């Protein structure tokens, strides 16, 4: 992996989202192996994006924001992040069918 000039920060809301997703897969779908694989895929995708987080189209939103959101698609989920100076800040992970415009503050 290339050395990145960006550092990585995870917000608590992202961690809450991820725990909720994992709990659903483990306890409702009874598939702990799938949950582990998904977490691995998400983490790998985030680390791959770290080398060039601004090289992708920003998330189009009707809200005025200080920092543009970007997306990473992993299976049926989307990771939302912003770049603030030299920090790639991971803010949310949502099921792709959810209304991101409403949920992302």
**Quaternary structure state of the chains depicted:** single chain
**CATH level 3 topology:** YaeB-like fold
Number of domains: 1
Specify Rg, calculated over alpha carbons: 14 Å
Query: In the CATH hierarchy, what is the architecture at level 2?
Result: 2-Layer Sandwich
Estimated helix fraction: 25-40%
Major β-sheet, in short? Answer: 4 strands, mixed
The strand line-up of the biggest sheet is 1-4-3-2
Query: What is the chain-wise order of helices and strands?
Result: EHHEEEH
Distance between the termini: 32 Å
Query: CATH-wise, what's the superfamily?
Result: RelE-like
Task: State the name of the first-level CATH class.
Answer: Alpha Beta
Number of helices: 3
Counting DSSP E segments of at least 2 residues, the number of strands comes to 4
Globally, the shape reads: globular
Category from helices, strands and their pairing: alpha+beta
Strand content: 25-35%
Query: Could you name the ranges where pLDDT drops below 50 across 5 or more consecutive residues?
Result: none
Mean pLDDT: 91
Write the layout of secondary structure elements.
Layout: E1 7-10, H1 12-28, H2 32-49, E2 69-74, E3 77-84, E4 87-95, H3 100-103
Parallel strand pairs: 1-4
Antiparallel strand pairs: 2-3, 3-4
Helix pairs in contact: 1-2
Task: Give a brief rundown of this model.
With 105 residues, this protein is α+β, with helices and mostly antiparallel strands.
């Amino acid at each position: 992996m290339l050395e990145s000039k960006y550092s990585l920060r995870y917000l608590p809301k992202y961690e809450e989202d991820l725990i909720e997703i994992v709990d659903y897969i483990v306890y409702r779908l009874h598939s702990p192996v799938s949950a582990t694989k998904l977490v691995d895929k998400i983490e790998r995708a985030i680390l791959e994006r770290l080398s060039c987080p601004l090289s992708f189209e920003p998330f189009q939103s009707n809200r005025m924001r200080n920092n543009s959101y970007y997306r990473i698609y992993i299976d049926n989920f989307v990771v939302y992040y912003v770049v603030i100076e030299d920090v790639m800040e991971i803010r949310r992970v949502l099921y792709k069918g959810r209304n991101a415009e409403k949920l992302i503050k």
